[in-house]
């Protein structure tokens, strides 16, 4: 936060008639446990009062709001051998973001904790949730009506409709939002005056008009069309990050995008999508393919698969998970695409289940812009193009907090382990089934490039897949048996 921004914010907070359920003033007192309880209480209080930020401020008298200055130095403060900030983050659940700002206002040192409001569950500190009641910090469990109101609030407002910025001037809206790209991607003729531009952005729910020519910017508007996501504090970590590694591990990084050392803007998902896909494609290794007359360079991973999986990681992520964002990692032998949030359906059913999205408005707008689809056939396309490229079957994984898709570089059949082969067999059976066909020994041999004389190899893989309860026989005799997925 710039010194002038800190001073302006301080003046706004000091002008409040009294401490609120989302603002706390202090002089010097800085007991670590008390700070943790107040962070929990302020975060929950801000959510209850629909505030986009909440503040814990040192250097101001809590009664008169007189500017006193403070001796508190949070970055020098430790609890045991642990820095205060890390200690607080470890004991807060969920791990909300808070920023520490230090500076001088009128020659007096001040410290400001800028805290994220609770978004999908009450924030606890050391296993206990707190709430502000007037200017006091209390245990949330002692105020069941406030606890019920909090849970009701979390269930009623989806992430997309929450606010990324509040009370922004019309000029700042047009600076923060790439309205030209927004209209172009949505296929809307750009209005020729500011008032009509703002009206149209409001219709698309990018902004919400307020009084006195002020506007709130919604999360969906900022996520999709921000001129720079870093200018929206709580969305800065949601920028999709691409990391290219030298080998098959994370020891040596070659390059990453966006470059943290460069002063290039971190565009919103929609306006930056084309450039993101192009940058990923330019970094991917290539193989030389000999055609009938010419040689050509072909990327190891099919672009069609990347164009399906990257938007999925952006759209279906759990935005309520803080401190993490979508990540694309390219290793020497694989590519991993990670999205915050556990999948809403079983990873084994990605290929056939109807689509479900946490962020329906976001998904709908990206579908309108032809960046993604919502028909549920995206994973089918990924499996089909992977088979066309004769690559190992992708791996769909669920971790305790993330969804990971792994695309593998070309690998000979003999280099595939048992799980690789079973996964390929199951996905091939799924693809056959959703295409109105049934897998056979012959189709699996073709998928895995197994010669006809080695049909017992394919039979062994089929038996292993049946033993793993991933496929079952659907008809035919031993020689011409047909197989379908376990769910068919």
Class derived from helix and strand content = alpha+beta
> What is the residue-mean pLDDT, rounded to a whole number?
89
Helix content: 25-40%
Label the CATH architecture of the largest domain: 2-Layer Sandwich
Distance linking N and C termini: 56 Å
Roughly what fraction of the amino acids lie in strands? Answer: 15-25%
Please tell me the total number of domains: 3
The neighbouring-strand order within the major sheet is 15-14-18-19-21-20
CATH class of the largest domain: Alpha Beta
Low-confidence stretches: 290-295
> Helix tally?
15
Major beta sheet summary: 6 strands, mixed
State the CATH topology of the largest domain: Heat Shock Protein 90
CA radius of gyration is 27 Å
What is the approximate shape? elongated
User: How many β-strand stretches?
Assistant: 23
Please provide a written account of the structure.
It is built from 15 helices and 23 strands. It has helices at 3-14, 32-48, 84-91, 144-156, 170-176, 179-186, 194-203, 219-225, 269-283, 303-315, 360-368, 378-388, 418-434, 441-448, 455-467, and strands at residues 23-26, 54-58, 78-79, 82-83, 92-93, 98-105, 108-115, 124-125, 128-133, 136-139, 163-169, 207-209, 214-218, 241-245, 253-257, 286-290, 295-299, 327-330, 334-340, 395-398, 402-408, 471-475, 482-485. A hairpin with a 4-residue loop joins strand 12 and strand 13. Residues 290-295 have low confidence and may be disordered. The protein has 488 residues and is an alpha+beta fold. The strands form seven sheets. It has a six-stranded mixed sheet with strand order 15-14-18-19-21-20, with helices on one face. The chain has three domains: 3-157, Methyltransferase, Cobalt-precorrin-4 Transmethylase, Domain 2, CATH 3.30.950; 161-234, no CATH class; 236-485, Heat Shock Protein 90 (2-Layer Sandwich), CATH 3.30.565.
